[in-house]
């Protein structure tokens, strides 16, 4: 069995990988590489699903970790955390809808929603890494 205390590090790696795949997938579609884009975005989806699974397992075993910082950094942390959590709740149905439209070859509808999904998903992935750094690496 994996030590649950290792999972925050795994989660940060999965979030960072998702972010990298999202940017790569975007660049691929902008340059006309549809098949590579599709593979990249499916890989980002798999990384995000693995993150969500790992995140739930970690919190079931370890609970939550309070932020130890004080002063201005505490306010910054909570501002990032709140936006991250709210958008993480919103992004799941958007990602699923965007993916389904792409997989069903509904490219006009896919592109319209992807314009919203990509920046939100990227924000959630990047702020996930930032929250990890602030919570597990600063103190």
Question: In a few lines, what is going on in this structure?
Answer:
The chain is mostly helical and 139 residues long. 83% of the residues lie in helices and 0% in strands. It has a single domain (4-137), classed as Four Helix Bundle (Hemerythrin (Met), subunit A).
Describe the model.
The chain is an all-alpha fold and 139 residues long. It has one domain: Up-down Bundle (Four Helix Bundle (Hemerythrin (Met), subunit A)). Helices cover 83% and strands 0% of the residues. The protein has 4 helices and no strands. The chain has helices at residues 7-30, 34-62, 72-103, 107-137. The longest helix has 32 residues, at 72-103. It is elongated and about 45 Å long. The two termini are 27 Å apart.
SSE layout:
Layout: H1 7-30, H2 34-62, H3 72-103, H4 107-137
Helix pairs in contact: 1-2, 1-4, 2-3, 3-4
The secondary-structure class comes to mainly alpha
Largest sheet, if any? none
Distance between the termini: 27 Å
Radius of gyration: 16 Å
Helix content: over 70%
Q: Which outline best applies?
A: elongated
Unreliable stretches (pLDDT < 50, length at least 5) are none
CATH H-level name... which superfamily? Cytochrome c oxidase, subunit III, four-helix bundle
CATH class: Mainly Alpha
